[in-house]
Specification:
The chain is α+β, with helices and mostly antiparallel strands. The chain contains ten helices and 16 strands. The chain has helices at residues 7-11, 19-33, 43-57, 60-69, 87-93, 95-98, 130-135, 280-285, 344-356, 363-383; strands spanning 79-80, 122-128, 137-148, 163-165, 174-181, 184-191, 200-202, 214-225, 234-237, 253-259, 265-268, 271-279, 287-293, 296-302, 311-314, 330-337. The strands form six sheets. A four-stranded mixed beta sheet has the order 1-2-10-9. The chain has a four-stranded mixed beta sheet with strand order 11-12-16-15. Helix 2 (19-33) packs antiparallel against helix 3 (43-57). The relative contact order is 0.10.
C-alpha cells in the first residue's frame, strides 16, 4: 500500500500556518485540480487528496493528533472516505467554502426535481484483537457527523417559514448551459447556480444552521463484526453516514478492520502458526508440553527424537472461515534451543553422552557421511 503524503505538503503550507492560510490553500488546490476544470491524469486524485488534507488540518482536534502522531494518530477518528467519493460529493461537503469557486459550471451528475441526491459515506477504523476474529464481536462507536438540522428538519429555512421555487431553474435544481465551439454548439445540464441545486429559494434562513440544513451531531452506532474477518476488510453500516447537501438520504459508515498482532500466534488464512521453543532434552526424550491457543493452553505430545523445525497440527484450533464458518488448524513448529552456557555438571554429563554417540547410527548423519565418503572417493579416483 502506498504511503500517504504529508498533509501540509499536499496543501503547500507550513506547519505553523494559520487556519485562514490553510483554507485559502485548499480552495486554490480544489480550483486547480477539480475534474471539471482539469482533465490531466491524476488531477482527480490530487483533488481528493487535498480534500482529505483539508478535513484534517481545518479541524483543531484532528490537526493536533496529526501533528503529534502523524497519519497513525488518526486511526479510529471518523473521516470522510474521499478516495471512494465522487468529485461532486466532495464539493457538497465543503460547499460553503467552494460554492463561489465554480459558479454554475459544475455538473452534479444527478437527476432530481426539487432536491434529492445521495448521502456521503464516512470512514473510520475499528481495532480488533485476534480473539475477536475467532468469536465475532459487537462494538459501539461514538463519533460526530454532519446531520439534519433538528430545528428546521434539514430544510434550511427558519421554522414556520416556507421556501419558494427558484426563479432561475423553476424548482428543478438544474439548468441547461449552452456553449459555442466554432460551428458546434454544446448543451450541458448543470446545477442551478442560483439555488445550488436545491430547487428552492430560502427567504429566511434557519438561525441554527445558517440555511445549510445541516448541523454537527454526536451519534452512537453499534457495529457487528462477523467471525473470521480479515485485516483490511471493510464493514459497511448502511445509512449511518452523512446526508448530501441536497439529499434526504444518508450515506454509509465504512469501518476498516485492523487486527492487532498476537503475542504467540501468526495468522495464515484460516490457520494459525505457533513457533514453540523446546529444549534439546525434550526433543531427544520426548514429553508433553503446553501450547498457547486462542481458547487457552492446549497439551501437545512431543515424540522422542523430534527434530528442529518439526511441525505438528492441532486440528480445529485455527480461525473460522468468514464464509463457511469451518475452523482452520493451529500449526505448531518446534524450535530446538541449544543452551549457550552450561554448568560444570551439565557439561560433564554431555561429554559422557558424546562418548557414547555413534553418528553413523543416526539417519541424517549416516546419509550425510555416506554421501561425503562417496564424494571423496570419487575425487580420489578422478585424481588417480
Amino acid at each position: 500500500m502506498a504511503s500517504k503524503r504529508d498533509y501540509y505538503e499536499v496543501l503547500g503550507v507550513g506547519r505553523e500556518s494559520a487556519a485562514d492560510d490553510i483554507k485559502r490553500a485548499y480552495r486554490q488546490a480544489a480550483m486547480k485540480y477539480h475534474p471539471d476544470r482539469n482533465r490531466e491524469p491524476g488531477a482527480e486524485q490530487s483533488f481528493k487528496e487535498a480534500a482529505e488534507a483539508y478535513e484534517v488540518l481545518s479541524d483543531p482536534e484532528k490537526r493536533a493528533r496529526y501533528d503529534r502522531f502523524g497519519h497513525e494518530g488518526l486511526n479510529g477518528v471518523p473521516m470522510h472516505d474521499f478516495a471512494h467519493m465522487r468529485a461532486d460529493d466532495i464539493f457538497s461537503v465543503f460547499e460553503e467554502l467552494l460554492g463561489g469557486a465554480f459558479g454554475g459550471g459544475r455538473a452534479r451528475g444527478r437527476s432530481r426535481a426539487g432536491g434529492g441526491g445521495g448521502g456521503v459515506d464516512i470512514q473510520t477504523t475499528l481495532e480488533l484483537e485476534m480473539q475477536d476474529v475467532a468469536t465475532g464481536t459487537e462494538r459501539t462507536l461514538r463519533f460526530e457527523r454532519q446531520d439534519y438540522c433538528q430545528p428546521c428538519s434539514g430544510r434550511g429555512a427558519a421554522p414556520g417559514t416556507n421556501t419558494t421555487p427558484c426563479k432561475t431553474c423553476g424548482g428543478y435544481g438544474q439548468v441547461e448551459r449552452q456553449q459555442s465551439m466554432g460551428f458546434f454548439v454544446t448543451r450541458q445540464v448543470v446545477e442551478c447556480p442560483a439555488c445550488h441545486g436545491r430547487g428552492q429559494t430560502i427567504t429566511k434562513p434557519c438561525r441554527d444552521c445558517g440555511g445549510s440544513g445541516r448541523a454537527a451531531k454526536e451519534v452512537v452506532v453499534s457495529v457487528k463484526v462477523p467471525r473470521g474477518i480479515h485485516d483490511g476488510q471493510m464493514i459497511r453500516v448502511r445509512g449511518e453516514g452523512e446526508p448530501g447537501m441536497n439529499g434526504q438520504t444518508r450515506g454509509d459508515l465504512l469501518c476498516v478492520i485492523r487486527i492487532s498482532e498476537h503475542p504467540f500466534l501468526v495468522r495464515d488464512g484460516d490457520h494459525l502458526i505457533c513457533r514453540l521453543p523446546i529444549s534439546f532434552t525434550q526433543a531427544a526424550l520426548g514429553g508433553q508440553v503446553e501450547v498457547p491457543t486462542l481458547a487457552g493452553r492446549a497439551p501437545l505430545r512431543i515424540p522422542s527424537g523430534t527434530q528442529h523445525g518439526a511441525v505438528f497440527k492441532l486440528s480445529g484450533k485455527g480461525l473460522p472461515n468468514i464464509n463457511t464458518g469451518r475452523s482452520g488448524d493451529e500449526i505448531v513448529q518446534v524450535l530446538v534451543e541449544i543452551p549457550k552456557k552450561l554448568t560444570r555438571k551439565q557439561e560433564e554429563l554431555l561429554r559422557q553422552l558424546a562418548a557414547t554417540e555413534d553418528n553413523t547410527a543416526l539417519p541424517e548423519s549416516r546419509g550425510f557421511f555416506e554421501r561425503m565418503k562417496d564424494y571423496l572417493m570419487g575425487k580420489g579416483d578422478a585424481g588417480a
